[in-house]
Amino acid sequence: MFNDIGALEVVTLVVLAVLVFGPDKLPKVIQDVTRTIRKIREFSDSAKADIRNELGPEFKDFEFEDLNPKTFIRKQLDNDELGLKEIRNGLDLKKEMAELTDAVHGRESASSSSVSSSDSSGGSSSGATGGSVDMTKKREIEERPPYDMDAT
């Protein structure tokens, strides 16, 4: 629960508690806090048991931690029934995004340069005669207008 609290923070909290409550009342305050935490845990455990009983036997292995979207997705990705690992391993998103940005900016990527070299050496290019735009040609970079801070 408190995995990220270091020793210095604990010492600071203890010193602060002694200063606020005093050494006489501190044991009573600690007992009250631990009793309250224990009652909250008991209430939460009984609520979970009631929910499990009401859901029925088909939800016997239901875990409340699965309601957290991160754990649900992590559990589903670890489950290989759907073949998600093959899809995830076969998908190179960085490469696809690089090719897409190269195509948008008019630059040649590694895969499109091999296609254009075989296209220019072997047959006719459909970009010049078909009326479509040739994405492999480098476009002249236009100069951007100056940025105006007052206009925004």
From TrEMBL:
Domain of life per record: Bacteria
Record-linked Pfam families: TatA_B_E
Biased composition regions of type Basic and acidic residues, renumbered to the chain: 135-152
Presence of the UniProt keyword Transmembrane in the record: yes
Keywords assigned: Cell membrane, Membrane, Protein transport, Translocation, Transmembrane, Transmembrane helix, Transport
Subcellular location: Cell membrane; Membrane
InterPro entries: TatA/B/E, TatB
Topology versus the membrane: Single-pass membrane protein
Chain intervals with Low complexity compositional bias: 109-123
Region called Disordered, residue ranges: 102-152
Regions that span the bilayer: 6-22
Family the entry assigns: Belongs to the TatB family.
Assembly and binders: The Tat system comprises two distinct complexes: a TatABC complex, containing multiple copies of TatA, TatB and TatC subunits, and a separate TatA complex, containing only TatA subunits. Substrates initially bind to the TatABC complex, which probably triggers association of the separate TatA complex to form the active translocon.
Known function: Part of the twin-arginine translocation (Tat) system that transports large folded proteins containing a characteristic twin-arginine motif in their signal peptide across membranes. Together with TatC, TatB is part of a receptor directly interacting with Tat signal peptides. TatB may form an oligomeric binding site that transiently accommodates folded Tat precursor proteins before their translocation.
Protein name (database record): Sec-independent protein translocase protein TatB
Species annotation: Streptomyces akebiae
Lineage: Bacteria, Bacillati, Actinomycetota, Actinomycetes, Kitasatosporales
